[in-house]
UniProtKB/TrEMBL annotation:
<protein>
    <submittedName>
        <fullName>6-aminohexanoate-cyclic-dimer hydrolase</fullName>
        <ecNumber>3.5.2.12</ecNumber>
    </submittedName>
</protein>
<dbReference type="GO" id="GO:0019874">
    <property type="term" value="F:6-aminohexanoate-cyclic-dimer hydrolase activity"/>
</dbReference>
<comment type="similarity">
    <text>Belongs to the amidase family.</text>
</comment>
<dbReference type="InterPro" id="IPR000120">
    <property type="entry name" value="Amidase"/>
</dbReference>
<dbReference type="Pfam" id="PF01425">
    <property type="entry name" value="Amidase"/>
</dbReference>
<keyword id="KW-0378">Hydrolase</keyword>
<dbReference type="InterPro" id="IPR020556">
    <property type="entry name" value="Amidase_CS"/>
</dbReference>
<dbReference type="InterPro" id="IPR023631">
    <property type="entry name" value="Amidase_dom"/>
</dbReference>
<dbReference type="InterPro" id="IPR036928">
    <property type="entry name" value="AS_sf"/>
</dbReference>
<feature type="domain" description="Amidase">
    <location>
        <begin position="27"/>
        <end position="475"/>
    </location>
</feature>
Length: 496
C-alpha cells in the first residue's frame, strides 16, 4: 500500500482491508512508519516511539473492530506496561519512569485490535490548552507548522491530521480533546462522566470532569471506539448506564428534528474572533438547511464564576498530583515548568472548605444545564475563541517570570491569586478556550465538529453539548453533518 492510498481511509476502512485480507497489519504499519519518519520531525507529534513493539504485535493474530489499524496513545494517563512514560514532564522523563501496568483503556483498545507504535506529545501534566512542554518541545499544527496543535491532546491531534494514523488516544479534562480537534480540523468527542475507564490506578479524574476517548477523522471511528471501550470496571466510581444500541448502529439512523440553542459570546467576557463567530453562524445555517430549529440562547450560568470554580479545582488537583510525583520520583521544583510550580502553589493554598464550596457550585451548574435542556436538545458554541495560536504566542511574558520566581522562592506565589487577580488569571488562562470547561464541570458529553476553515486554511470547530448520557444524540447529528458537508477531502490539502 502507498501512503496516497493509506491517507484515504479512516480506521474502520483500514480494518476492513485487513479483514478482507487485502492488506496485512504489518504493511499498514510500514506505511505509517515511513510517513512518520518523514513527517514527525516537522510535527513533533510522537515523542516516545514504540516501533519494535508494534512490529511484533502486527505479526500476531489480531481480532476486534480495529484489528491491524496503526494507533498512537497520549503520553498522559494511557500507560503501557514496560514503556517509558513522562506525562510531558522532565520530572518523569529524567528518571525514565516506566509503569508496570497497562491502563484499563489501553487493554480495551488492544482488545479492539489496534497496533500502537508510539506515545504522543502533551503539555506538562496536561495543564495547558497548547502543547509546548519544556521536556519535548512544541507540537506543530499540520495545517500550518508555525501554529500549535492545541492541548492537551496536541500530539495525537497533530498525528491524526498529519496522516500518521487515522485515530489516536486522547483525554479531556477542560477541553483537551475538543480544543486540539478544533485547531487541527478533527472530530473530537468528550464522553459523559463515567462513560470510559480510568483504572487501575484511578477510580476517576477530577471528579469525573476528565474523560478519555480518541481524536479521529470520521464520526464512525469515534462511535466504534466508544462501543469498544465504554462501560464500568472494577475501579469505577461513577457508573453510567450502557446504551441499549451500539453507537455505530445509531449513526446509521437520521436524527430527529432537533431544537438547538447557540451562542457565540465568551462566557468569561473575553474576545471572540470573527472566525469563531462565522464558524457557528455557518453551522447554524447548515443545521437549519437540514430541518433543525436553531435559536440564539444560552444557559443561565455565570460563566466567570464557573471558570473560577473550574480553576480552583484544577489547580488544587494539580497541586496534589505534583506532590505525588515529587514523592514518587524524588523530583524538586527545578524539574517542573515555572507555570506548573505556580499553579501548584495556588492550588496548595485552597482550603478544604473552599474546595467543598466549589464542588457544591459544580452541582448547581449541572442543575442549570438540566433545566436548559428541558427546552433544547443541544447547545452550540464555538469550540475555541479563535484558530490555533502560533507557537510561543500564549507563553508567559518574559517580564512576569522573575516576579513569579521571586514569589515562589519566598513561598508567597499564592498571593498573586487573590481578589481581582483571580478573575484576571482566569481570563488570561482561558481566553483562548473559554467554551469547553462547561461540559467538564457538569459531566456532560460534548463534541467538536470540523465544519469551518478560514481564508488562511486554518480550521475552527463547532462545539455541541448534549444532556447527560446522550452521546448517541451527538454522534447521530455529527454523522448527518459529516454527510451534508464532508470534511475528509480537506486533509488532502495538508503538505508535509
Amino acid at each position: 500500500m502507498k501512503f496516497s492510498e493509506y491517507i484515504q481511509y479512516d480506521g474502520l476502512g483500514l480494518a476492513k482491508l485487513v479483514k478482507d485480507k487485502e492488506v496485512h497489519p504489518s504493511e499498514l504499519l510500514q506505511v505509517a512508519l515511513e510517513h512518520t519518519h518523514k513527517a514527525n520531525p516537522k510535527l513533533n507529534a510522537i515523542i516516545i516511539p514504540m516501533y519494535e513493539r508494534a512490529k511484533q504485535r502486527a505479526q500476531q493474530p489480531l481480532t476486534g473492530t480495529f484489528a491491524g489499524v496503526p494507533f498512537l496513545v497520549k503520553d498522559l494517563f494511557q500507560e503501557y506496561q514496560g514503556v517509558p512514560t513522562s506525562y510531558g514532564s522532565n520530572a518523569l522523563k529524567r528518571i525514565n519512569y516506566t509503569p508496570d501496568f497497562n491502563a484499563e483503556i489501553i487493554n480495551r483498545w488492544e482488545k479492539a485490535g489496534i497496533v500502537t507504535f508510539g506515545r504522543t506529545n502533551t503539555p506538562e501534566f496536561g495543564i495547558k490548552g497548547i502543547t509546548e512542554p519544556d521536556a519535548w518541545g512544541a507540537c506543530h499544527n499540520p495545517w500550518n507548522l508555525k501554529h500549535n496543535s492545541g492541548g492537551s491532546s496536541g500530539g495525537s491531534a497533530s498525528a491524526v491530521a498529519g496522516g500518521l494514523v487515522p485515530v489516536a488516544g486522547a483525554g479531556d479534562g477542560g477541553g483537551s480533546i475538543r480544543i486540539p480537534a478544533s485547531y487541527c480540523g478533527l472530530f473530537g468527542l468528550k464522553p459523559s462522566r463515567g462513560r470510559t475507564p480510568w483504572g487501575p490506578q484511578f477510580s476517576e479524574a477530577m471528579h469525573g470532569a476528565a474523560m478519555q476517548h480518541v481524536l479521529c477523522k470520521t464520526v464512525r471511528d469515534s462511535a466504534a471506539m466508544l462501543d469498544a471501550v465504554q462501560g464500568p470496571e472494577q475501579a469505577s466510581l461513577f457508573i453510567i448506564q450502557s446504551p441499549t444500541q451500539k453507537y455505530l448502529d445509531v449513526i446509521q439512523q437520521m436524527p430527529k428534528k432537533l431544537t438547538i440553542a447557540f451562542n457565540t459570546q465568551s462566557p468569561i467576557g473575553t474576545k471572540v474572533s470573527k472566525d469563531a463567530i462565522q464558524a457557528v453562524q455557518q453551522t447554524a445555517k447548515l443545521l437549519e438547511s437540514l430541518g433543525h430549529i436553531v435559536v440564539e440562547d444560552r444557559p443561565q450560568i455565570n460563566g466567570l464564576e464557573l471558570a473560577k470554580d473550574f480553576i480552583t479545582t484544577w489547580f488544587s488537583q494539580f497541586s496534589y498530583m505534583q506532590a505525588q510525583i515529587k514523592h514518587m520520583s524524588g523530583a524538586t521544583d527545578e524539574d517542573f515548568e515555572l507555570d506548573s510550580n505556580a499553579l501548584a502553589a495556588f492550588g496548595a493554598k485552597t482550603t478544604a472548605t473552599d474546595y467543598i464550596h466549589t464542588l457544591e457550585n459544580w452541582g448547581m451548574y449541572s442543575t442549570q444545564m438540566n433545566i436548559f435542556f428541558e427546552q433544547y436538545d443541544l447547545y452550540l458554541t464555538p469550540t475555541t475563541a479563535s484558530v490555533a495560536p502560533q507557537n510561543g504566542e500564549v507563553a508567559m511574558p518574559s517580564w512576569q517570570k522573575p516576579i513569579l520566581k521571586g514569589f515562589l522562592k519566598v513561598g508567597k506565589a499564592h498571593y498573586l491569586a487573590q481578589g481581582k487577580l483571580v478573575e484576571k488569571m482566569v481570563q488570561e488562562n482561558l481566553s483562548w478556550v473559554p467554551f469547553t470547561q462547561l461540559a467538564n464541570v457538569t459531566g456532560l458529553p460534548a463534541m467538536s465538529v470540523p465544519l469551518y476553515w478560514n481564508k488562511n486554511g486554518l480550521p475552527l470547530g463547532s462545539q455541541f453539548i448534549a444532556p447527560f448520557g446522550r452521546e448517541d444524540r451527538l454522534l447521530q447529528l455529527a454523522a448527518q453533518l459529516e454527510q451534508a458537508q464532508p470534511w475528509m477531502p480537506q486533509y488532502k490539502n495538508i503538505q508535509l
